[in-house]
């Protein structure tokens, strides 16, 4: 990054107030730190991992970041999160709706377990829609140059051989973003999606039951671009771009290194 581009980004976030769901670890944590480095007045990280959330907020600095517990599948909690942010900080400029879960078991369409399906959709789809809804309601009455970014996945525009419920949920996010961008553009609100390839985050490491290095080797097979592993910092930088660029909306930005769909097996 050149000095001039860094200065432009810093001005773009100067004085802004942001909410990041799923902000206690992984992509959310990396983005919270990046936003703070680039001038946000306050980053509110929302999660259900209380200890981690408080640790991240403290490490960034309580004058620049605070933590709030929020289960995004619960509308009252999402509404309260947005309202408390506006009450405490006077505005909401950025919503990074990032919280999501993985399929606890890999399923084909023939094997769909609908209690599992319903839980995954409650977080990945309902939760995402709730965050967009309530952030947009606050933004309509708020500052100019407001931005909503959702976390999707490279499988949000492709089919895969397993994890059908997860794949379906990520397709739904792309539909949400494209519809919301059409409806909210009149209010000056931009809505975009960032769609990463597989990354060794705490969530995927736990799901696969392997070390970070082993998970990175698994995911290397899913991209054409070889070299350094895809990291959360690469996705965070893409989110920063979407937030700062004032004329990108309705876009699904793949951060995938040239995705290669697996013939067999899961795509987390």
Q: Which key phrases capture this entry?
A:
268 residues, alpha/beta, Rossmann fold, seven-stranded parallel β-sheet, 9 helices, globular, disordered C terminus, SDR_fam, Sc_DH/Rdtase_CS, NAD(P)-bd_dom_sf
What does this 3D model show about the protein?
This protein has 268 residues and is an alpha/beta fold. The protein has a single domain, classed as Rossmann fold (3-Layer(aba) Sandwich). It contains nine helices and seven strands; from the N terminus they run αβαβαβαβαβαβαααβ. It has helices at 3-13, 26-37, 50-60, 75-89, 114-140, 164-184, 202-208, 212-220, 232-244, and strands spanning 17-21, 42-47, 65-69, 94-97, 146-151, 189-196, 252-255. The chain has a seven-stranded parallel beta sheet, with helices on both faces. Helix 3 (50-60) links the parallel strand 2 (42-47) and strand 3. Helix 2 (26-37) crosses helix 9 and helix 5 packs parallel to helix 6. The longest helix is centred in the middle third of the chain and has 27 residues, at 114-140. The chain is globular. The protein starts with a helix and ends in a 13-residue tail after the last strand. 46% of the residues are buried. Residues 264-268 have low confidence and may be disordered. Belongs to the short-chain dehydrogenases/reductases (SDR) family.
């Amino acid at each position: 990054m050149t000095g001039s581009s860094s200065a432009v980004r810093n001005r773009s976030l100067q004085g802004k107030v942001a909410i990041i769901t799923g902000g206690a670890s992984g992509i959310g944590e990396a983005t919270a730190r990046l936003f703070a480095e680039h001038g946000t007045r306050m980053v509110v990280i929302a999660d259900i991992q209380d200890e981690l959330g408080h640790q991240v907020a403290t490490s960034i600095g309580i004058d620049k970041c605070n933590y709030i517990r929020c289960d995004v599948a619960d509308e009252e909690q999402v509404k309260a999160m947005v309202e408390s942010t506006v009450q405490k900080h006077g505005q909401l400029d950025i919503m990074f709706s990032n919280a999501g879960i993985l399929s606890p078991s890999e399923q084909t369409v023939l094997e769909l377990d609908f209690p599992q399906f319903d839980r995954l959709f409650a977080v990945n789809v309902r939760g995402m829609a709730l965050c967009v809804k309530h952030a947009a309601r606050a933004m309509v009455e708020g500052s100019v140059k407001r931005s909503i970014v959702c976390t999707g996945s490279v499988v949000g525009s492709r089919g895969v051989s397993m994890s059908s419920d997860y794949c379906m949920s990520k397709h739904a996010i792309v539909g949400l973003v494209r519809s919301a961008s059409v409806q909210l553009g009149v209010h000056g609100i931009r809505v975009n999606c960032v769609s990463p390839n597989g990354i060794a985050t705490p969530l995927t490491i736990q799901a696969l039951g392997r070390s970070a290095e082993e998970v990175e080797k698994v995911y290397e097979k899913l991209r054409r671009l070889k070299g350094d592993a895809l990291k959360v910092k690469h996705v965070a930088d893409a989110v920063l771009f979407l937030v700062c660029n004032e004329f990108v909306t309705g876009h699904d930005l793949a951060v995938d290194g040239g995705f290669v769909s697996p013939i067999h097996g899961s795509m987390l």
